[in-house]
Design goal:
With 130 residues, the protein is mostly helical. It is built from four helices and no strands. The protein has a single domain, classed as Orthogonal Bundle (Helix Hairpins). Helix 2 packs antiparallel against helix 3 and helix 3 runs antiparallel to helix 4.
């Protein structure tokens, strides 16, 4: 492999970060649910520092945050693909969009349950010690 191709590979790797940032901007500007997930995630991460959660709890919280953001991004991508296919109301496309939206909701609810399992005992302990 010559030097030029290595430089090109590095350039294309950096360029891919730019594409990812553009995707983030689309999600931020067009998806209210993405912004809600982001705000809740920042609050949950803050609670993690306040309550000094352990390593396993951090891993679970970070996994949940990551999976919900990923699901929201995939949902948005699926919606955009469906809209490319047809501008008219199509019952089959509605089913696809509904299933995709359910996947995000399901993961958000499961993540909320994980958060309750992790934080509720800590909150109850805090209030019982007052």
């Amino acid at each position: 492999m010559n030097i030029l191709s290595i430089k090109e590979q590095i350039y294309f790797r950096f360029q891919s970060f730019g594409y990812a940032y553009e995707g983030f901007k689309v999600l931020w500007s067009s998806e209210a649910n993405f912004r809600i997930h982001l705000i809740i995630s920042v609050l949950v991460l803050g609670l993690g520092f306040v309550f000094k959660i352990n390593l396993l709890e951090w891993m679970l919280i970070l996994f949940c945050v990551g999976i919900v953001f990923s699901a929201e991004a995939f949902n948005t991508a699926i919606e955009h693909l469906c809209n490319l296919n047809s501008k008219e109301i199509n019952p089959e496309i509605k089913v696809i969009k509904d299933i995709s939206a359910f996947a995000v909701l399901f993961l958000a609810v499961i993540s909320m349950i994980v958060g309750i399992i992790i934080f509720l005992p800590k909150v109850l302990y805090l209030f019982s010690s007052i």
